[in-house]
């Protein structure tokens, strides 16, 4: 008779434990949702100014392009090439050039070819880490300054991937 009484006492405590865990889970989920709703900014409202973007100034995703020839910025085609050492590593680089005054597309193409040729001479060890990337940026800026004669005021790195 004592065995039956001990089994009956254990059964309600297991049900109470499951109910308590479920209640705590619901309270924690509700509290997380409430805090998230209070801290998250509301979604931006679509304005008429954003809807009036010219069709030629949008990218593939429909977002306005920052790099347009109207504001003196020319985005170069992506550069994909292998490194000097190890030769099995590849680098992909997208840059935009900011011109002083009207942009020169022919000069931008020369700069594009010059950057591509320079990247073929760089080894992976030279561009590893933040300091190596800064040296690469400085070297490319110096080459662009020499090639353009000071007409390009800024080289903007858009993407840089090593594979």
Automatic annotation (TrEMBL):
Its main location: membrane. InterPro entries: FliL. One of its GO terms (biological process) is bacterial-type flagellum-dependent cell motility. It is a single-pass membrane protein. It is found in: Cell inner membrane; Cell membrane. Belongs to the FliL family. Controls the rotational direction of flagella during chemotaxis. This is Flagellar protein FliL. It comes from Sinorhizobium glycinis.
């Amino acid at each position: 008779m004592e065995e039956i009484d001990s089994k009956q006492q254990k059964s309600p405590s297991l049900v109470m434990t499951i109910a308590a865990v479920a209640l705590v889970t619901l309270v924690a989920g509700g509290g997380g949702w409430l805090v998230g709703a209070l801290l998250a900014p509301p979604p931006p409202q679509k304005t008429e100014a954003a809807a009036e973007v010219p069709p030629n100034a949008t990218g593939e995703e429909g977002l306005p392009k920052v790099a347009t020839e109207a504001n003196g910025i020319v985005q170069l085609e992506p550069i994909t090439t292998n490194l000097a050492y190890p030769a099995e590593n590849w680098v992909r680089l997208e840059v935009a050039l900011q011109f002083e005054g009207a942009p020169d597309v022919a000069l931008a193409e020369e700069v594009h070819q010059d950057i591509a040729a320079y990247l073929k001479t760089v080894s992976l060890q030279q561009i590893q880490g933040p300091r190596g990337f800064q040296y690469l940026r400085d070297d490319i800026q110096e080459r662009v300054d020499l090639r353009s004669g000071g007409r390009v005021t800024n080289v903007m790195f858009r993407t840089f991937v090593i594979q």
